[in-house]
Write a structure and sequence with these properties.
The structure holds 2 protein chains of 2 kinds.
Chain A: E1 3-10, E2 16-23, E3 33-37, H1 51-60, E4 65-68, H2 85-93, H3 98-112, E5 117-122, H4 124-133, E6 139-145, H5 153-156, H6 158-161, H7 164-176, H8 181-188, H9 194-202, H10 231-240, E7 244-250, H11 255-264, H12 268-271, E8 278-283, H13 293-310
Parallel strand pairs in A: 3-4, 3-5, 5-6, 6-7, 7-8
Antiparallel strand pairs in A: 1-2, 2-4
Chain B: H1 10-18, E1 23-25, E2 28-30, H2 32-38, E3 54-61, H3 70-77, E4 81-88, H4 104-115
Parallel strand pairs in B: 3-4
Antiparallel strand pairs in B: 1-2
Chain lengths: 313, 119
């Protein structure tokens, strides 16, 4: 029978972080510990209890799972000083919770004797996992659901940083709304995103496509300006150590096109060396938080398949 | 189909639950056992003033819309010792642009009401 217990440990700043440790009925010998990281300002249960079935899946496979709240969130100590949510997202993207994650790894190592880890989560949780994986060699597996590889300044200037895929999607939406009076009211009362509309319409004329970068040079250009500069070095460091990653995205999310256009294509040359260590899947029709049961089931099936194939005795 | 504002009416959601279906509320599946265990089908006490205890009905108003809601005033008056409170907060129960570490006004008003009730 599986079991769980409330646990807590200190981060480097001395703040007590609270979580739950979930043990399998039959532990798999030598299995890595799984640490699930919260996205954004969510708690350790994840949006829509997303981490609950994930935890059960890993327990079922014989893995021990730790879920905990980052400092300033949920049950953990600390205060966040930011006034706007987007500022918090920015802090997450540049690694605010990497230290908490590394403290969790150290606590699991010192208290429970684990020496290999799978770290992951949704969105900002995946970003934190990737950044942490660049700094701790015992993180050997990354589970990234809706990995965010850009900085949230995107939201402040949406037109500037939208990908080609996003612009094409917006263009289709605008064309569908041509006969909607409410849309015209918004347009004529200065409520529309004019920059986005303009860049989308330009796609009718200029159909440029992203170009793969075969060299090791760091890609540059306007479309890369909100790409998180911390992600590529951390991710490649992890891959060079032999780490394995599962990258799953939701089709109705902006994140897969961001990953493709701002990381996979610009770094195609380097990524080619690590193809065998990477697996991926896009869940059709799914939204960012995998709201519907069928989307979750598809995600869980893929995670199970990847884990069984990747983590061998 | 996940529930979003305007896509389903409250009554249609209740009908689906009554038919034995579950409804998906932004990722949370809600079915009859949970719904029936916690749902209050009728907020107004029947008969009026049947509940003798102190009752706080707290109106949470968006800034600039603090005018007392008649339906909430009626609800509060349906309790023998009902009080209608009114506090100003943004919609902290969902992700909005400001970061809401805690709803200070709601906490303060509620605590004040609790502390004022010592006999």
């Amino acid at each position: 029978m599986t079991s769980f217990e409330p646990v807590s440990f200190l981060n480097s700043a001395g703040l007590r972080l609270h979580g739950t440790l979930h043990r399998p009925a039959v532990a798999r010998s030598g299995a890595p510990a799984v640490i699930l990281l919260s996205p954004g300002v969510k708690m350790r249960v994840g949006p829509g209890r997303l981490y609950v079935p994930l935890t059960r899946l890993f327990n079922d496979l014989g893995f021990c799972v730790l879920r905990f709240d980052f400092h300033g969130l949920g049950d953990s100590e600390g205060e966040l000083a930011e006034k706007m949510l987007i500022e918090i997202y920015n802090h997450v993207e540049v690694g605010r919770y990497v230290d908490d994650t590394l403290c969790a790894v150290r606590w699991m190592r010192e208290t429970h004797g684990f020496h290999e880890f799978m770290v992951g989560g949704l969105c900002g949780g995946a970003t934190t996992a990737a950044l942490a994986a660049g700094r701790d060699a015992e993180i050997r597996h990354l589970l990234c659901l809706g990995l965010a590889i850009t900085l949230s300044s995107d939201a402040a200037t949406p037109a500037r940083y939208l990908t080609r895929g996003e612009l094409d999607s917006r263009l289709q939406k605008y064309l569908r709304r041509l006969l909607d009076p409410k849309s015209w009211v918004r347009l004529l009362t200065f409520q529309s995103e004019y920059g986005v509309i303009w860049r989308s319409l330009k796609r009718l004329v200029i159909r440029d496509k992203p170009v793969a970068n075969a060299s090791d040079a760091v890609p540059t250009g306007t479309h890369m300006e909100n790409a998180n500069p911390l992600f590529p070095p951390a991710f490649f460091s992890f891959l060079q150590r032999g780490g394995r990653a599962l990258l799953m995205f939701s089709e109705k999310d902006r994140l897969p096109s961001e990953y493709e256009e701002k990381f996979a294509l610009p770094y195609a040359g380097r990524l080619a060396n690590f193809r065998a260590q990477l697996d991926g899947k896009i869940i059709a029709s799914a939204n960012h938080v995998l709201s519907m049961p069928e989307w979750r089931q598809e995600m869980l099936s893929k995670v199970r398949e990847w884990t069984v194939a990747t983590v061998r005795d | 189909m996940p529930y979003t504002a305007g896509s389903w009416r409250r009554e249609s959601l209740r009908e689906r639950i009554a038919r034995g279906e579950s409804v998906n509320l932004d990722g949370y599946e809600l079915a009859a056992p949970l719904f029936n265990s916690c749902a209050i089908r009728e907020l107004l006490p029947n008969p009026p003033h049947a509940f003798p205890g102190r009752t706080l009905v707290m109106q949470i108003s968006a800034p600039g819309t603090e005018r007392t809601r008649a339906d909430l005033a009626e609800l509060a008056s349906g309790y023998a010792r009902g009080t209608l409170g009114n506090c100003t907060e943004d919609a902290f129960w969902k992700e909005i642009r400001p970061f809401y570490g805690r709803a200070e006004n709601l906490q303060r008003e509620t605590l004040a009401w609790l502390e004022s009730g010592h006999d």
